[in-house]
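Notes on consecutive records. When two proteins share a document, each keeps its own sequence and its own token line. Never mix them. Below: protein one.
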Amino acid sequence: MKKTTWLLLVGLLLVGLVVPGCSSNTGKLTVATDATWPPFEYVNTDTKAIEGFDIDAMTAIAEEAGLDIEFVNVGWDPLLAGMAQGTYDMAISSITITDDRKKEMLFSDPYFAAGQIVVVRLDEMTITGPGNLSGLVGAQIGTTGAFEIDKIAAAELKTYDDVGFAFQDLMNGQIVAVVCDNPVALGYVGEYPDKLKTVGDVFTDEYYGIAIAKRNSDIVDDINAAIAALEAEGKFDELADKWL
């Protein structure tokens, strides 16, 4: 083998090692999502495809920004750890922009306003909101909902890898409430109107953003420009009508 050819191959291998989040076969940017959070991201049981508000939003943003992407379905904790370590290029998964997360990853401008709300069983009359929340309360692990429950002295937090399991336990009477993002809560209440209801008002101010690996700082401006353009076109309102 010629020396120049050998050096070229070594160089290509090194590039692959330096950029672990990019697919070596396709060159696409990997976008992690925890597809257990309908109506924002979930796996269609019939087609097995990942669908939802976030999936459509990220697809539109990537098209507007001229980015080639592929979605990767991972658990919530591995998603956050992977973004901090640079395993994935981006992530979209109803991710609330927080100061702590900004230390480990970059964020786009917000693309959706959300907040926490309490969900209880339809026959629950005692709990009327976060102010009198007490007993065993469920939330997905590592989410803002879990952090907010921890702040309530009378509430005992029970965490779940999948928020759907929390709602199953709520309907089965194993916990007294679930705290989660308002649009997700409305999705479950809409699916089970004879079993669930929200109580009180949204009690936090939160915004979803696209998480971006720090090594990909060069695409942040393009993504923000795409978000602004789609917002001006009414694309996110269109997606809200479709999914929410």
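Protein two starts on the next line and is unrelated to protein one.
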Amino acid sequence: MHRMKKLLIIEDDITYSLILKSWLIKQDLDVVTVSNIIRAKKFLQENEVDLILSDLRLPDADGTVLLEWMKQRHLVIPLIIMTNYADIQSAVQSMKLGAKDYVAKPINPDILLGKINEYIDFSVQEQGEKPKINVGQKIYLIGESDVARQLNNYINLVSPTNMSVLIIGSSGTGKEHIAHEVHLKSKRASGPFIAIDCGAMPKELAVSEFFGHIRGSFTGALADKKGAFLEANGGTLFLDEIGNLSYEVQVQLLRALQERRIKPMGSTQEHEVDIRLITATNENLEDAIHKGLFREDLYHRINDFTLKVPDLKERDGDILLFANFFLDRANEELDKQIIGFTPEALDMLIQYTWPGNLRQMNSVIKRATLLASEYISPIELGEEFNQVIDKRNDLLLYDQENEKEQILKALYQTHQNKSKAAQLLGIDRKTLYNKLNQYQIKY
């Protein structure tokens, strides 16, 4: 009989541990949680475990102590370290002691499941092939900054409804990924998600792209075409850069949205359609209305609810989360094992203005991952980042004598937000809490 794989989670944040446990149980894993190294040792002495997922810093010791203990007892169990970006050096040390890999917090579920698939086979004892966990590709990370949390709240609020959504944001901010997130959290998640780039679509083909055509309806129509409205029937239709549509196409789009019926080009038959419309633009549609370039009635039809996507430079606290997210993706795509970023590279990523937003960051980090051998340094990031190499944050805790003053300053600047203060100080959240206790700072 096939035995379920047993996974041990060592994490002192009980809430986070339970969330992780309930999610992994849904992946057909037998999951046990403990909150410190002592309990982990006791459990490992009495039970058979296939894989360990351990936080790097724990109340009684860190993960490297457990690795040393396992090595002394010849326990060969794959161990994945969970770590904050600020602890990358310690994560590397843990890998030298025998950890198989690390995952950055907040954990990307698909990346973690990919690593479980990769490493859990090291301890297979029963015969037969282990069924692989179905890992989908996560293409977007919401983030933890205040603006990201607000955006996520709005997404959660509007997604279950059938309201049309207009997503406004600069080029490269991930508007299509936001649209897909709304779809996945909607009651139409099991239906199709059809995306059309209106900016790249020739206006003479727009009607055919939207509503389809029948064979022979125009020169070059060699076969029937369903069109986006019929393809998205029962699901979500996403129109990116809707401001680029010609005025004539806007009229036909408005009619289709009002009547919920479409007629393919060359056909006499109408089709009822049931779609949820999400649109996006990086233009000011209200200005376009005043200039007579965009229909006001269409604007109100597509804009039951607006989602404003912030530029990357506005997402204080999210830049390094996205950097590690894109690094994990690049490692997987390029079949590399780059460990992380040097401190100088981290400073550059934070100080850079990112005019191309997430699209630019993804491209920069993929290129840097290809060039790097172990860490990504300023050299791999490229010439454009040299301008920020000397703009270090003056709050970083380089001088232990004024640590308390710097911590108080960081807390003041972030309105007592511990996660933001830790990032300003160049330390992880747990280290900040330890220092708050050390200096008896009330929080």
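For the record: The mean pLDDT is 81.
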